[in-house]
Amino acid sequence: MKITNEQLKQIIKEELQSVMNESEALLGLAALAAMRKRRAAAAKKKAAQGPLPRGGYKRGYGGPSSSSSDSGTASDIENIMQQRAAEDAAKEEKQKQYRANISPSLEALGQAKLKAFQALGRDEDGDLPYMNAWSGDEEWLGTYYDGPLSYFEALAEAKRNGHISYSAIDDESGGFHLDELFPGKYI
Predict the structure, then answer these.
(1) pLDDT in tens, 160-181
(2) Global pTM?
(3) What is the mean pLDDT of the chain?
């Protein structure tokens, strides 16, 4: 039995397809897609380099010359480093500004405590009022706050700096007694 070239090509094609199907099952679709994408990118890169001369060999063929590649790469790296340095400087400046606003914000939070006490007075038991830390009704401390940081940032800084304990604010209601904020101060 004689096999023609066309029949041989068809047999090889079918065998390769069956091997690819087995590989697809073993590797998973994501790995196969990544592999195909890499092959396509390599083929595209090779096509972009242009055709090889007759015979398939060109002395020193390997893409752009090393001198132009190195200067472009060094320039790219320098640009990236400058961009990162500028981003880091901007981030540091923002953090510096934030830190500078902490003290005035804590003072404004203390003044908010005083304003809330003046507006609401003591409760029926003679205690300082029970305030809401998170909601926006009349007993919300944020109503009386006027500082450079947002009310929530100032409250978080008060926690970090020990001016109100982390457990002082009720998890469910978001309420706390006003005397737990800056204990013994501002009233």
Answers:
(1) 999 888 888 888 878 888 888 9
(2) 0.51
(3) 80
CA 110 to chain centre: 33
DSSP string covering 108-152, please? HHHHHHHHHHHHH---TTSPPPEEESSS-STTBGGGG---SS-HH
Nearest to 151 by CA among 109, 98, 111, 118: 109
Q: What is the pLDDT of residue 35?
A: 73
Task: Identify the DSSP state of 52.
Answer: P
Whether residue 158 contacts residue 112, with contact meaning beta carbons closer than 8 Å, is answered with no
Q: Is residue 105 scored above 80 in pLDDT?
A: yes
pLDDT above 70: percentage of residues in the chain: 80
* Strand pairing report for 130-132 and 175-177: antiparallel
Residue type, 82: Q
Distance CA 37, CA 58 (A): 27
Neighbours of 180 (CB within 10 A): 16
C-beta contacts of 152-160 below 8 A and 24+ residues apart? 153/105, 154/105, 154/106, 154/108, 154/109, 155/109, 157/102, 157/105, 157/106, 158/106, 158/109, 158/182
Number of C-beta neighbours around residue 145 at 10 A: 22
Indicate whether 80 pLDDT > 70: yes
